[in-house]
Amino acid sequence: MSTDLPIRKIIHVDMDAFYASVEQMDNPELNGKPIAVGGGGKRGVVSAASYEARTYGVKSAMAGALAAKLCPDLIFVRPRFDRYTEISKKIRKIFYDYTDLVEPLSLDEAYLDVTQNKKGNPSASLIAKDIRKRILNEVGLTASAGISINKFIAKVASDYNKPNGQKTVNPEEVLSFLEQLDIRKFYGVGKVTAEKMYQKGIFTGLDLKQKSLQYLDENFGKSGRYYYYIVRGIHDSEVKPDRTRKSLAAERTFSENLSSEVFMLEKLDHISEEVARRLNKSNVAGKTLTLKIKYSDFTLQTRSKTLPYFISDKSVILETAKDLLFQERLSNSVRLLGISLSNLNNKKKKTPEIKKSVSVQLKFEF
């Protein structure tokens, strides 16, 4: 292991069932009841589920129809993203009282680097506890946290004592923690990869650690090197407070399949307006527009065009999307259309790195 690894105290804060918890907070009649944020019906998808709903097996990204079968008393609530954004901003404001090194991953989770923090508190565990207490008192929601030497371990740890809990993995505990960890708990190991690892006799971090770098490269491609290092506690990624957005998109799933391009143009008009709104709100523009088409048989197709200039105006977005729609004949009726803008005109800022030796790292108070 390197003797010049970055020494950091990282907290990963993850709100508990965020969207569903906001709905229960704003409407006390929903407290203690199984709710799903998102659409029910034939085409609806669950965006978030309350813990009461999760006991029935309901989870995010699940079809609404299946969720309703699993939980007959499930209450569907229409999402209110403006409200979730408002609450998220209040939570982030609390984070910034402790450090400017905050990297939001989404509305409901973020990394914080508190190695050098505004409170002068040497204990990352106590800082995490204080942050969670303030979120509960000032916002009215519970949060969970993971605390460790890098982003990977902190994220894994934040899921350990959910909801409304936290777990610290001290420097001297890192290797044993990872060795005992079920491979499914490794962030970055999805369902398909986990099944492949099971077939190769890899069930825990210890099993993974016994595989050579060459073996992992040969069997898992580019991800092999990532797995080789993270199981050894090596993950040097910094907390990036100015995390650069790579793309911005909007899409719509239709209640009925569309076969007429006239109706598709009407939908593209609404999607273009939403993309333009998000671009302007983020004060960015993009050069590469991608049209996403999902057919009724669930096959997916994308068509892209890179322009010689940046765009954010709805009319230009719509015209470019229309060109891509008519670029070639559609192979089937369509159930979803989406537009994304990438190659954005935002610049990445570099975060100063904090480095010490491993021997010093082991003396850190967590």
Automatic annotation (TrEMBL):
GO cellular component: cytosol
A single GO BP: DNA repair
Domain UmuC: 10-190
Cleaved signal peptide residues: none
Primary location recorded for the protein, binned into one broad class: cytoplasm
Active-site residues from the entry: E109
Subcellular location: Cytoplasm
Top class in the EC scheme: transferase
Catalytic activity field: DNA(n) + a 2'-deoxyribonucleoside 5'-triphosphate = DNA(n+1) + diphosphate
Entry binding sites for Mg(2+): D14, D108
Alphabetized NCBIfam families for the sequence: PRK02406.1 (NF002677), PRK14133.1 (NF010731)
Quaternary assembly: Monomer.
Family: Belongs to the DNA polymerase type-Y family.
Protein name: DNA polymerase IV
